[in-house]
Amino acid sequence: MNALRRIVTSEVPSMAIDEIVIVENSSVLQDETIAHRMGLIPLKTDLDSYNLPEECPCQSEFGCNLCRVTLTLDVEAKVETKTLYSGDLVSENPNVVPVSDKIPILKLAKEQRMKLEAYARLGKGKNHAKWEPVSMCAYKYYPNIDITKDCSTCGKCVEICPRRVLVKKGDKIEVNDLIACTLCQDCVKACPESPPAIRVSGEENAFILNLESTGALPPERIIAEASRILDKHLKELEGEIKVKKSEKS
Ligand code: SF4
Ligand code: SF4
Ligand SMILES: [Zn+2]
Asked: Could you tell me if 42 and 216 are in contact, meaning their C-beta atoms sit under 8 angstroms apart?
C-alpha cells in the first residue's frame, strides 16, 4: 500500500509547464518568479496522447508534438491595472489547459505587458513537485472495533473519542462512524474495565486511501496508473531475481 502511495506522488506523470520563453515582460516581477508560478499551475493531462520526453522517439531537447504542448500568453493592461489569470493562457491543445481559469499569476499596471510562450511536458513528482498529480495521498488501516459483553456502558470511551466514532444508545455503545477512527486507542485506555471492554485494531488486508487530485487526472486514473507502474516494477524485480545455490546444499 505504501509502495502504491509513493508511486502516486512520485511516478504517475502529469503535465506541467517546464520551459518559458519571455518575449516581453514590463511588469514589476522578474522572469524567474513568473516562470516558477507558471510551472505550478496544474494542467489537465492527456496521458494517452503524449510521451514522457525521455521515452519519446524524437529524443529532441526541444520536444515534438508527441511530448510537448505549447501555451501562449499575450496580455496588456491598456487602460487600468489588470490581473493576469491562468485562463489567459492559450493552449494549442484544448485537452491540455489549466484546471482552473481563476489562478492569478500577476498584476499588470497600466501600459505594462506580458508576452510569453510556455512549453508543457509530462514529468514525474520525483523530479519536481509541480508534476505531482495529487495535492495529498495518505492511507490508514481499515478500523475494526469490538465491544465485549463486559461493557458497563459507562460512556467514557464515547466522551474521550476525538473523532466522535462511538455513540451511546440506551444501554449500548454503538459505532457511529467507523471510517473516522484513527486507531489512536484513547477509548481503550479510558475504559475502566480490566481487560478493556473495547478493542480497536486495524484490518490486516484492508485500507482506506485518501487521495486528492490536483485536477490534472481523475483520481481513478491516478490509481490505475500507479497500479500499472507498480506491476511493471514488480515484473522487473522478478526478472532480476537470481538464485545462487550454495555448494554445501
Ligand atoms: S481508537 Fe481513537 S478514534 Fe478510534 S474509536 Fe477509539 S478513541 Fe475514537
Ligand atoms: S469505556 Fe469501556 S466499559 Fe465504558 S462504555 Fe466504553 S467499552 Fe464500555
Ligand atoms: Zn517528442
From this structure: yes
List the residue whose alpha carbon is closest to atom 1 of ligand 2: 191
For ligand 2, atom 8, name the residue with the nearest CA: 151
Report d(CA 46, CA 63) in Å as an integer. Answer: 16
Ligand nearest to the CA of 55: 3
pLDDT, tens digit (0-9, with 9 covering 90-100), for 211-226 = 999 999 999 999 999 9
State pLDDT tens for residues 114-139. Answer: 999 999 999 999 999 999 999 999 99
The ligand placed nearest to the CA atom of residue 69 is: 3
Q: What would the pLDDT profile of 51-68 be if each residue is shown by its tens digit?
A: 999 999 999 988 999 999
CA 180 to chain centre: 21
Q: Which amino acid does the sequence have at 73?
A: L
- Measured from the CA of 145, which atom of ligand 1 is nearest? 5
Per-residue 3-state assignment (H helix, E strand, C coil) for the chain: CHHHHHHHHHCCCEEEEEEEEEEEECCCCCHHHHHHHHHCCCECCCCCCCCCHHHCCCCCCCCCCCCCEEEEEEEECCCCCEEEEHHHCEECCCCCCECCCCCEEEEECCCCEEEEEEEEEEECCCCCHHHCCEEEEEEEEEEEEEECCCCCCCCHHHHHCCCCCEEEECCEEEECCHHHCCCCCHHHHHCCCCCCCEEEEEEEEEEEEEEEECCCCCHHHHHHHHHHHHHHHHHHHHHHCCCCCCCCC
pTM metric for this prediction: 0.85
